[in-house]
């Protein structure tokens, strides 16, 4: 609940859609959070597809960061991007994040 087209596009690594959606909106204030506090950036980073099956996944993270998305926000469970990347074995995301 509370997920937007931006969340789903980021989650699934659809960089063209992420770019399109961010031409008319911004996630710099954290207003892109879901009810559990997860941001579009979090959704993009927490999916296994970024680890190699979808090359645009890491590009989507880079694009979101460049558009002002806060990489350091955590959800209501205290989970942030680096936490989830490590938990899910997403080495490329963890290395990029650090």
Automatic annotation (TrEMBL):
Residue stretches of each ANK repeat: 1-33
Keyword Repeat attached: yes
Record lineage: Eukaryota, Sar, Stramenopiles, Ochrophyta, Bacillariophyta
Protein name, entry field: Uncharacterized protein
PANTHER family hit by this protein: ANKYRIN REPEAT AND PROTEIN KINASE DOMAIN-CONTAINING PROTEIN, INVERSIN-A
Organism: Fragilariopsis cylindrus CCMP1102
Keywords per UniProt: ANK repeat, Repeat
InterPro entries xref list: Ankyrin_rpt, Ankyrin_rpt-contain_sf
């Amino acid at each position: 609940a509370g997920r937007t087209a931006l969340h789903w596009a980021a989650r699934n690594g659809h960089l063209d859609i992420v770019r399109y959606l961010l031409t008319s909106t911004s996630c710099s204030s954290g207003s892109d959070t879901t009810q559990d506090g997860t941001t579009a950036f979090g959704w993009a980073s927490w999916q296994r597809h970024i680890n190699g099956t979808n090359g645009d996944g890491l590009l989507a993270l880079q694009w979101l960061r460049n558009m002002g998305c806060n990489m350091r926000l955590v959800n209501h469970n205290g989970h942030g991007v680096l936490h989830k990347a490590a938990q899910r074995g997403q080495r490329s995301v963890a290395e990029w994040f650090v």
